[in-house]
Amino acid sequence: MPSQYPLTNGCEVTPSQPKATIFDDSKVFPLSYCPLFFSFLRKFCCLLLLVGTSTFLVDAQQTINFDEVVQPIDSRVGELKERLVQLAWVNNPDNAALERMMNIEDEKIQLAKKDWTKGVRATFNLNDQNVANDPTANPDAVLYPRYNIGVTFSLADVMLRPHNVKIAKEGRKISEDRVNQQKVFIRAEVFRRYNAYEASIEKLKLYTEVESVMYTTYITVKSNFEIGMATIEAYNSASGAYTEAKVDKLEAEIEVKVTKIALEELIGESLENVQRNMK
Fold it and tell me: What is the per-residue pLDDT for 51?
């Protein structure tokens, strides 16, 4: 049987066997690319974490309940400062004016919803031949139509209505934001004035103790000076220290009164009355 392969120089050429190949995954995904891949994956995860955290913070900031910033006056509170915040909100005419402005914005929304009706016009026209009592008139001479009824309206008012309503609603939101901002300010201002009042009381207690010590020292040095056991310098020093302590105490007493007046100015009534009603 003749060979299917040609002879070369008298020798039969045999087909070459296919070489065995081993899959080299480094050519498909080289190991040198792994650091770049993991670096990209790490940055991508950090980006997702950052976006998720930002979204959470935004949602947390939008969940402020301003009714808790200034609680309603009819709600019972346990702390004196919270009661002072309630009174400061209710007894301040500026706060009432802001709430009335919000009511005005509510009415503007209703007006914007019904504003399109201002352009609606209804007309009615009756042929005078139907009501004329003329015996000489030809009864067959009837003019048509006997009457006309028409309704006209402004298309622009109808098309602009959604925009006007939206503007009115945005104005209402602005008014509500002003009320909420005022609530935050009133609460902070009450806390500032109340803390200043408490600090002035503590300062008065401190200066009262210092004044008492200086008075005792002054009496002792004065007695010793009268019997010749203290020098004039010691007596003058004790007297000056006692006088300075009395001045500090007097200034602390004035500060207590001033801070108390500032607090009562904000809440609209005496602090003693509030404390008495809290019991």
Answer: 52
